[in-house]
Specification:
iron; 19 helices; four-stranded parallel beta sheet; 467 residues; pyruvate-formate lyase- activating enzyme; metal-binding; alpha/beta
Length: 467
């Protein structure tokens, strides 16, 4: 087998389009293994089925890799599954080609057998695919391909656990993805400095997708990737998309000191920072290295809820982190999951009070209800409480919301309690046309990022946006 077509199926652009970093990583690994690879990114395709038809007919692949980033939008108030669109795509692929097919991605890793059954496919990869995908497609016989570690067969189950390595293939994302399309909507490229997570938050799936321990890339390799992307794409802003940027201890310092040592002239942001153990020295180092914004994920500002979620830190640490960041030049977006176990009027009131004390340069992203995934502590709790049934498929969205509160009461507390709702972002608002317009305008006018800082303006110009 020589020719493999990689298809990134994600077409969601809210709250912002996500560069298919994982799919590009696997494509590069297949290329380095000697396969001829073509990459099809459907994110901005107005006619995705026509695009797939055209590429399959022209490229005539012997292997097809399908990447599924997310199963759904994880929105309790307006759930949407992405799988029906993928199923339609798969049906077209099967009509056009008898190529050996492998499906993977973060979404697939959570429920591989259920995904295969729904899509009518036979083979999936669990976890990262840099080693599994090349081995699967290069195997002379299908029987041998099915024995590759991490490959799940619909009829054969999971014969071998996935291979998790600390040796990373250089992703070379800009070689596979038309980064100009993404930079045209938000001028930031993703960078991953490590994989895995040693934490055990009640609801989280990171350790299932990336492994149960930290696997760190060489800081020099990460910085070289940034410098290469700057030369090749002209990008000057990068977001570290690690599961938790300030863990394990010492990692943040090694990476940022390497950025300073090599004199990188770029702006940086972080997609997930923990309040746990944050120090003034770390905040100052982030500023010196060019960190301008971050997303911090306490999920609550109340001890009872934090403990129930298994966050591993206290509300005192949340307030300490807020104090440190408020005294810096870094903008922070605080993320909260409202409605989890042990949530009550008292805990919601504490979170609302915390949001009201944030400085004007900071905002809050608030979701209600928590998506239930199999194998998590939240799933076990949901089974005990009868929220879901033992034989219930979680392929389509199922959510946990505490019995101590009603959704109506919770929304009233949030909407009436927050003193300035224009500084709060709710999931539905990220799909609004006004925010998309402001994002494009921001790129055109070269306004400072992150663009979530302008969500309040989008809300104000929306019908009914002023309180």
């Amino acid at each position: 087998m020589q020719r493999v077509l990689m298809i990134s199926t994600n077409s969601e652009t809210a709250p912002q389009p996500a560069v298919p970093l994982g799919a590009a990583w696997v494509a590069e690994a297949m290329r380095l293994s000697g396969l001829e690879v073509q990459f099809l990114d459907l994110c901005f395709s107005k006619k995705p089925l026509a695009a797939v038809d055209r590429v399959i007919r022209s490229f005539r692949p012997e292997g097809i890799a399908l990447s599924i980033r997310n199963l759904d939008n994880c929105d309790f108030l307006a759930p949407k599954s992405y799988l029906p669109a993928v199923k339609e795509l798969v049906e077209l692929v099967r009509c056009l080609s008898d190529a050996r097919t492998l499906v993977g991605g973060a979404g697939v890793s959570l429920m591989p057998l259920q995904v295969l059954e729904y899509l009518g496919l036979d083979h999936a990869v669990v976890g990262e695919g840099e080693r599994a995908a090349p081995a699967f497609f290069r195997a002379a016989r299908l029987a041998d391909a099915c024995q590759v570690p991490g490959v799940v067969s619909r009829r054969g189950g999971m014969p071998k656990p996935p291979h998790l390595s600390s040796q990373f293939v250089p992703p070379r994302t800009h070689g596979w993805v038309d980064t100009r399309r993404y930079l045209g909507l938000e001028p930031v490229l993703p960078v991953q400095g490590k994989r895995g997570c040693a934490n055990r938050c009640l609801y989280c799936t990171y350790h299932k997708v990336e492994g149960e321990g930290w696997r760190i890339r060489e800081p020099a390799d990460v910085v070289d990737e940034v410098l290469s992307a700057m030369r090749q794409t002209g990008a000057r802003e990068f977001e570290f998309v690690d599961s938790v940027f300030n863990e394990p201890p010492g990692y943040l310092e090694l990476l940022l000191e390497e950025i300073l040592r090599k004199g990188v002239r770029a702006r940086f942001s972080v997609s997930s920072l923990s309040p746990k153990g944050l120090t003034v020295e770390q905040v100052r180092l982030m500023e010196r290295a060019g960190m301008t914004s971050l997303v911090i994920t306490p999920e609550s500002a109340a001890d009872a809820t934090l403990s129930a979620l298994g966050k591993g830190f206290t509300e005192a640490e949340v307030h300490r982190a807020a104090e440190l960041l408020s005294g810096s030049s870094i903008r922070a977006l605080w993320c909260f999951l409202v409605g989890g176990p042990s949530e009550s009027e008292e805990s919601v009131a504490k979170t609302v009070s915390f949001v009201n004390r944030l400085p004007r340069k900071e905002s809050a992203y608030i979701t209600t209800g928590i998506r239930i995934y199999p194998g998590t502590g939240l799933h076990r709790l949901a089974l005990e409480e009868g929220v879901v049934e033992a034989d219930q498929s979680l392929l389509h969205p199922a959510f946990y919301f505490t019995r101590e509160l009603t959704l109506q009461k919770t929304m009233e507390m949030l909407q009436r309690g927050v003193s300035d709702t224009c500084r709060c972002i709710f999931p539905a608002e990220t799909r609004g046309a006004n925010l998309s317009m402001l994002r494009r305008l921001g790129v055109l006018l070269r306004l400072p990022t992150p663009f979530w800082r302008y969500a309040g303006y989008a809300k104000k110009i929306s019908p009914g946006g002023r309180r």
